[in-house]
Amino acid sequence: MHVRPHDLAPSDRYKLLIGAVVPRPIAVVSTCDRDGRLNLAPFSFFTAIGADPMTLLFCPANRPDGTAKDSLANARPAAAGGTGAFVVNVAVETIIRRVVATAEPLPPGESEFDLSGLAPAPSLVVEPPRVAESPVAFECRTREIVELNPGAPGGANVVIGDVVAVFVRDDLVNDRFHVDAAGLAAVGRMGGTQYCTTRDRFALPFGRPALGAPDPFGS
Ligand SMILES: Cc1cc2nc3c(=O)[nH]c(=O)nc-3n(C[C@H](O)[C@H](O)[C@H](O)COP(=O)(O)O)c2cc1C
What we know:
Layout: H1 10-20, E1 24-25, E2 27-32, E3 38-43, E4 46-51, E5 54-58, H2 70-75, E6 85-90, H3 96-101, H4 112-116, E7 120-121, E8 130-131, E9 136-147, E10 157-168, H5 181-184, E11 187-189, E12 195-197, H6 209-212
Antiparallel strand pairs: 1-11, 2-3, 2-6, 4-5, 5-10, 6-9, 7-8, 9-10, 11-12
Bound molecules: flavin mononucleotide.
């Protein structure tokens, strides 16, 4: 198969993306609206951008009716009706069922914190709380939102955040800021309803020396 996106239905483009761009880390994004109502939802179209400035992004697509998901609406700057802030909590093994449950679309006024049983804990800098059960949280102020297809059903959006505080559970980080990957036990998303762990790891040296290292798969 060798195809062009404009020959495919958006749903088929989506299947190619989520099936082949794997595994994707999962951001559990906590936000609040201007009345302080809390919102929580998972996003696997998510990654780090850079360290200077410390930035990351997540991508909330428009709803099927073309309107913004709550996470996008809440993360918008105050001038656009939001609070200009969000917290990315890392999805880990111990909470994965509750994280996935937060994808449930709830009517206004009902919180995914209540639905999932995940608990809000105060953030250091921003208004939205972090998730108490998540061992790592990045508090962000919204730097920029790129709306690639405003108002379109499923239209793509990119929310870029400046990290203004980082929570890491003390037992998972050393004094040189190395994070214990085994202890973190992050979970990734594959296609459809499939997920993966980060338990199977191997090391390779950077660049040319990688060619001289033993093949981790013996192939
Ligand atoms: C593991 C997982 C990852 C998801 N990733 C995304 C994503 O990257 N972008 C997106 O628009 N929706 C994603 N969803 C669906 C949203 O979580 C879902 O639409 C949610 O209701 C949005 O909530 P909100 O309206 O409170 O923002 C994902 C769902 C799950 C279970």
